Amino acid sequence: MTPDMGQTRHDYRFRPEPRWDDGRFVPPVPRPIKIDIASWDRIDWIRYMLAASRNPIHGQTNLSIADFDQVARGLGRTFFTPSHPDTLRETFVTKADALRLSGIRNAILKPVLRNGLLTSEGDRWRHDRRALAPVFTPRNVNGFAQGMARTTQAQLDRLMGDDRVAFDQVCVDLTYQVLSDVLFSGELEGGRQASLRDIDRFLSSMGRPDPFDLTAIPAWVPRLTRLGKMGIVKRLRRNIGQLGEARRDRIEAGETVPDDLLTLMLTATDGEAMSEALLVDQLITFIAAGHETTSRALTWLFYLLSQDDAARARLEAEADGLDTDGPAQDWPDALPYTGSCIDEAMRLYPPAPFLSRELNRDETLGGKALPEGTIVFGNLWTVHRHRKLWEHPDAFMPDRFLPGARDAIDRFQYLPFGLGPRVCIGSRFAKMEAVILTALIARRYRLHLEGDHPWPLARVTVRTETPLTMRVERRK
Ligand code: HEM
Predict the structure, then answer these.
(1) How much distance in Å is there from the Cα of 285 to the middle of ligand 1?
(2) Ligand 1 contacts CB of residue 286 (under 6 A)
(3) Ligand 1: which residue has its CA nearest to atom 11?
(4) Is 136 in the pocket of ligand 1 (CB under 6 A)?
């Protein structure tokens, strides 16, 4: 079947129905906008920009999804969207030193994440990335697996207690509980629930670009949408800072301390003491980068499984066969189909879909000469659904990621964790967590969609536009 190649310019609100295409489930997504440079007037462009800024997924065009490596000019800037796997590699790996983080991205994230790994640059970033690498080695991540399983087992029944749940919120809560246990052994001041509320509010303040951020208004002009949220951030920083200092004191006093990521950060980071402010920046960054992303992957996965009975049955059978008394670090190897379903969910709905950068010098990328200041926009949503890279790009087909089949997928066409020197430092952790949580949920519950099919909304992560209500059927 020929993929849908475009809609007319006035159809931004059109929402296709989900469908079955020759035995494959195709969830509802916006159809690419057909850009017609010759006939579009100023109003058409403004409409397009507004739709794309409300939800960048609506900004995908027939060009971005079927051609490679777009260059566009507007608002006094040049925009480059690499999408061919070779150009993505050239841009983000080979010539990574020509990139700096984009002003827009830092305007959104920097006020909260400060000098954390996601937002720092230059020597600060290089030093910290090297210092933090030991925290995420396979050995350490394996060491967290049992704790991930334990927290999930302990929290699941409480979170899934009702007949109907807002499953997106369940996933946010669950991944936060897991992260909070793995990071701090749940020792955060004010209790887990209070800090969960603070983190929730701080993430929602962070996730929406202020309209000013998209313009050239300087950074010192107050961003109204963000004022009022900073009290929450201050409290969170204070609590995390106090916990870090107390832990450092206990380590120095030779006391027995919890075997968590905080202890690892204080002991495994090059032996060099990290300032309290930087420790807090890094921990807040891990929460921000590691909690919402993983929860989005699970939310979309269970939506897809709720529609595809065959895939769900196969995943449940695999999860049912798991020896949960065995070490949780071995589960990913025992659950190849579960892993493929997670990979396919992250292809269709990449949790962190945009890699935004700027060129710090004139550079040629994908054979195109681009000036310094060019906005470079890695758009994983379009790469993962590109018509020339994927068979049935919009369909849910987990088998394509099974061992053997996945060899046909180019290393640079599937990039849920990014690429190059700034590739996700927590990818191994995230995959481990996603497999463990998915298996434990699927063993105990079957979820049925209630109400409307979810519509993807891209903020910093790709979430469901409205809560994903699921009816809960208890299996065991
Ligand atoms: C499914 C879950 C996750 C996804 C899809 C994801 C995705 C990504 C992506 C795409 C980037 C690159 C951003 C860019 O280049 O602009 C990134 C960076 C990062 N991620 Fe993740 N992530 C996930 C989970 C985690 C977890 C669990 C942690 C930590 C515990 C984490 C920590 C980070 C950090 C610190 C960076 C910045 C790295 C740097 O710039 O050096 N992520 N992530």
Answers:
(1) 9
(2) yes
(3) 424
(4) no
Q: CB of 264 closer than 6 A to ligand 1?
A: no
Q: Kindly give the distance from the C-alpha atom of residue 199 to the centroid of ligand 1, in angstroms, as a whole number.
A: 17
What are 88's two structure tokens? 């993505």
How far is the CA of 82 from the CAs of 34, 79, 99, 413, in angstroms?
19, 10, 13, 11
Ligand 1 centroid, distance to 61 Cα (angstroms): 26
Asked whether the beta carbons of 338 and 319 are under 8 A apart, the reply is: yes
3-state secondary structure of 473: strand
- Give yes or no for residue 265 CB within 6 A of ligand 1: no
Say how far apart CA 239 and CA 188 lie, in whole Å.
7
- Is there an atom of ligand 1 within 6 Å of 335 CB? no
Written as six digits, the tokens of 286 are: 């891990």
pLDDT string in tens for the chain (476-residue length): 334 445 555 567 788 899 999 999 999 998 888 887 788 888 888 888 888 878 888 888 888 899 999 998 877 889 999 999 999 999 999 999 999 998 877 777 787 788 999 999 999 999 999 999 989 999 999 999 999 999 999 999 999 998 999 999 999 989 988 988 898 887 775 555 666 666 666 666 555 554 444 444 444 444 444 545 567 777 888 888 888 999 999 999 999 999 899 998 888 765 566 788 899 999 989 988 888 899 999 999 999 999 999 999 999 999 999 999 999 999 999 999 999 999 999 999 999 999 999 999 999 999 999 999 999 999 999 999 999 999 999 999 999 999 999 999 999 999 999 999 999 999 999 999 999 999 999 999 999 999 899 999 987 789 999 999 999 999 98
3-state secondary structure of 355: strand
* CA 137 / ligand 1 centre spacing (Å): 15
- Given the CA of residue 125, which atom of ligand 1 is nearest to it? 41
DSSP type of residue 93: I
The residues that bridge with 358 in the sheet, in sequence order, are: 100, 375
Could you tell me how far CA 124 lies from the centroid of its own chain? 24
Query: With a 6 A CB cut-off, is 420 part of the ligand 1 pocket?
Result: no
Task: Select from 452, 458, 455, 467 the least CA-distant residue to 382.
Answer: 458
Which sign, positive or negative, has the C-alpha torsion 59, 83, 76, 107? positive
Does any ligand 1 atom lie closer than 6 A to the CB of residue 424?
yes
Atom of ligand 1 nearest to the CA of 423: 12
